[in-house]
Amino acid sequence: MYNLPEQLRDLVPYEPVSGEYTVRLDANESFLSLPQELRREVGQAVSQIDFNRYPDPYATELCRKFAGFYGVQAQNVVAGNGSDELIGVIVSGFAAPGESITVVSPDFSMYGFYAQLYHVKVHNFIKENGLSFSAADLIRAVRENGSKILFFSNPCNPTSTVAGREEILSIIDALPDCLVVVDEAYMEFSDQSVLDQAERRDHVILLKTFSKAFGMAAIRLGFAVACPAIARALKAAKSPYNVNTMTQVVGCVLLDHPEYIRDCIRRIIAARDDLYAKLSALAAQKPQLGEVTATCANFVYLRTSRAAALAEGLAKAGIAVRDFADSLRISAGSRQENEAVLDTLSALL
Known about the structure:
It is built from 13 helices and 13 strands.
């Protein structure tokens, strides 16, 4: 009888919220979809694809436009089939079986997921009060456990908190023998980016995504920015045609409209601030709601002992949020969606 390999036998699939909901605020997606004029432009561009040909293996034009938008060198940009693919490539390529990585907790679960898949050990560095970490303590932990890679998101998913730019740079500079991967999937909603330093350090990879601020979760597109040597290594380690032509074309169309992107970011931040302010006001009126964390992302993190009951009540009202057992993560939505959340929570309490 065939037995599954150990790394697959105990592997638990990633399980997003499933089902039909009127309001989807569980996956940190943008509530903004492409306007009709951009949809027409996308349609025109897609109609010109030679579907019988493989994609550009290095997404050259897409990386060039990404580099222009962010002010980095195109040769130091690597495109991926979502940031998830790049995380998998980093774990499998930069850490050997039996070696270890460090992740902070709580944080994005996929760092540890890929480590488990590739027989890489995971050291969990627990955050203070579940929200923040001391740079000095994290540096000490990585040095002591000998990790080959340090992963963390900034701003953090799911807590919505951000570590300061100088604090992140102090971690990077203190760990020259460790690959430091900074996932800035939500940095468009904050101002502490270290993107400009990623190309200048020889042991840093910075990750970006089109799924949040850009509102393009459907096309599965992520990027890594690193020094030339690491960028070349990532291009060699990834699959040959990892980003399909349709994704490349759509990404290029969007990057041709930088002011649209910036307007989306402004609107998402406004929606987030509105949701945070009103949830905070509701928590002041009804302390049983829990503690609302000041947010630097496109969602609000609510620590509450009633997470399961509130998530169930919201689901019954057709509203999906992410339940973490002791907390809820609620993506910023449109004005109507935010009001639906607030009205339902108020009624539940």
